[in-house]
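Entry for the shared binder. Reason: the reviewer on the internal report wants the predicted structure included alongside the sequence.
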Amino acid sequence: MAENIFLFVPNVIGYARIILNIISFWYMPTDYVLAIFCYVTSALLDAFDGHAARALNQATKFGAMLDQLTDRAATMCLLVVLSHFYPKWMFVFQMSMTIDIVCHWLHLHSCNMIGMSSHKKIDASGNPIMHLYYTSKPVLFFMCAGNELCYSSLYVLNFTEGPSISFLFFSIGLWRLLFYICIPVAVVKSAISILHLIIASRNIAIVDVAERSKAREEQKNRLKH
């Protein structure tokens, strides 16, 4: 009997993430406590589906794509809400959405074109930054968590400053402090996304050149015969 990959544990976790995100999107304009709880819980489950896939030998291309699409859609929808809360910064949020979606889509597409089994398997002889990003779990977690915390804290900041944190004679709200701390992480992650775009474009260009060269050779052989 053929396996039903749609019922694999990692994919079921993925479905739960989608449900949590939808609930979060619904309550984002009105109930920030419930919204951020569902959003953060969905983000945390992102780590568990990967562990489940490896532990149960249930890694699938469908699961990898589901995971990527859920991440991209969740961040995009949060940025839509932030554009409403902070209209003066709408262009920044629009650019963030564009960079995130376009760069990751092209990276995944290029990996499929060159026959890579996973978008995370970066050759060490290739780009060292990308290699570190995908092979070091602490680095990947820090970058992804910092990016999400940046936007999430900015979202909550629209409703409350949070408890006051004091430094000598200076005090600042918790959510504002977290936002300021995580801004550099979000900027660096966007830069890494652009690096995805550059490397993916080069890989696709290599495929194009090879295919065009092969087509010319086939045409020459046909003319000879």
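Summary line for the report: The radius of gyration is 21 Å.
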